[in-house]
Input
Amino acid sequence: MAKKAKASVEKIVKKVNQEFEKTSSQIEGLISDAMKQFETLQHQVQDPVRKLLKDVDELREREMKRLNDEFERRLDEFHELQSNILERLGVASKEDIRKAEKESIKELKKAPATKKPAKKAAPKKAAPKKAAAKKPAAKKAAVSKPAVAKAPAARAKKPVDKSNLTLVKGIGPATAKKMKEAGITSIDQIANPSAADLETLKGFSNIKGSDQFTVEAKKIS
Output
């Protein structure tokens, strides 16, 4: 009985193994078919994309070339128009100016003696100009006298409003308001602070430039 049971079990295991191998081969076949289909689809998608990219590159090159040609054509037209306008206005071109300069240099080298009479005649004309220049100077001196008399009045300084804390460099309107609320109501309290004023001013140490408040206040007071 035991031998028959063992034989039947071996047959079942063998049959199961055969079925498993058969199923595995079918699954592998399905997987290989799916991979082939995937590769086919990939080629079908990639080929149009590559063609499209190639067409886009060709189109871009054609457009760039067309724009470059158009730009050069317009630039030539602009230069031609500019030269025509200059000719109509009687303005010479750069080449004409250079030619004229070369010709003038040649003429100066050929006839240098022609400028000598002009140099001798120059001092005679300069003499009346100097005499005429002295008259306005006298008028200026006469006008400047009353200005000197008014100078002392202009120097008089207006009294400083020492209650205006914003006169101290670095103190704005908001800070000045807070200082007055804290008891600092005069610039003198910042320039020469008492012990109590120092304690109050320490409360404004977080403000930028607060270490220079006393120095700036002394300049005003």
Remarks:
- Residues 12-112 form one domain.
- The chain has a mean pLDDT of 76.
- The helical segments are 2-89, 94-110, 116-155, 173-182, 187-191, 195-202, 213-220.
- The radius of gyration is 51 Å.
